[in-house]
Amino acid sequence: MNIIQVQDYEEMSEQGAEFLFQEITSGRSKVIGLATGGTPVGLYKHLIDKLKTNEVLLADVHTVNLDEYIGLSDDHPNSYHQYMFQNLFQFIDIPSANRHLPSGTATDFSEECRRYERLIQQLGGVDTQLLGIGANGHIAFNEPGSPFDGRTRVVDLAAETIEANSRYFAEGETVPSQAVTMGIGTIMESRRIVMIASGKEKAAAVKEMLTGEVTENCPATVLQKHGDVTLIADAEALSEIDVKNIQ
Ligand code: GLP
To answer: pLDDT tens digit string along 70-86?
Structure first.
C-alpha cells in the first residue's frame, strides 16, 4: 500500500482532492466511486475549487456512491443523496444522469441491489474508488464480519456505527439501522483505491488495516490484497504505527 503521510485534516483534504483531480483530468478515471461521512467534506471543497479553476469538463465522468441509508428519501437532509448534493454535486457540472447512488426507498431492495451491480458493470467498473474508514474498520457500510466476496446488499449497521453517525442527526432523530451498501467484493474490483483517514479515533483501525491479519473481522484489512491502494492519512490517524516499517 502506498502511504502518503500528511500533517492534518486540511492537508489530507488537499492531497485527496489533488489525487482525484489528476485521475479525472488525465482521463485515467471516468468512473469515480465516491464516499460520504465527515472525512471527505474538506476533500470535496478542494476538488470543487480545482475543477472550477481549471474549467474541467465532466460531461463523460460518472460517479458511483458506496451506500445509502434505508428509509431516507433522496431529499431527506441526512440521506447520502442530499450529502452529495450539498457537498459536491450542486457546485460542479457533472450531468445529473451521471450521478449514481443506491436508493434508500426502493420497493424491492433485492432488485435495487442487482440494478446497482448491473449499473457498475455497464459503466465498465469503477476506475478510482474513494474510501473512508470506520473506527471499527468498516468500509462503506461493510461492518465487521462482512464477507470479502460480498456484493451490493442490504446490511444491518453495527451499534457503534449508529452511535458514531448519530452526531450528524438532529437531537431525538432516529438514525437508520440499515443501509444498502456496495459489497467488499464490489469495492475490491475497483482498479484503484484512495483511502483518506484523519484523527486519533481512526488510529487503531488504520493500524489494524495496515498491519493486522487479513480477516473479515476487520473489513479494511482486505485492502492489503488489492494491488493499487493509496492511503492519505494525517499524523493522528497514523499515530499508532511506524510508517517506515510498513512501506
Ligand atoms: C460511514 C460511511 C463510510 C465512512 C465511515 C466513516 O458510516 N458509510 O463510508 O467512511 O462511516 O465516517 P466518518 O468519515 O464520518 O468518520
So the answer is: 999 999 999 999 999 99
Query: For cell 484523527, what's the residue?
Result: 199
Grid cell of 6 as nine digits: 500528511
| Dihedrals phi, psi of 154, to nearest 5 degrees | -90, 135
165 lines ligand 1 (CB under 6 A): yes
Judge contact between 113 and 180, C-beta under 8 A: yes
Distance 132 CA to ligand 1 centre (A): 6
pTM, whole model, 2 decimals?
A: 0.97
Catalytic, 143? Answer yes
Q: Determine the Cα–Cα distance for residues 184 and 218; give it in Å rounded to an integer.
A: 12
Asked if residues 54 and 84 have their Cβ atoms less than 8 Å apart, the reply is no
- Whether 39 is in the pocket of ligand 1, judged by its Cβ within 6 Å, is yes
* 173-195: pLDDT as tens digits: 889 999 999 999 999 999 999 99
Q: Residues with Cβ < 8 Å from 227, sequence gap 6 or more? A: none
| Per-residue pLDDT, 9 | 98
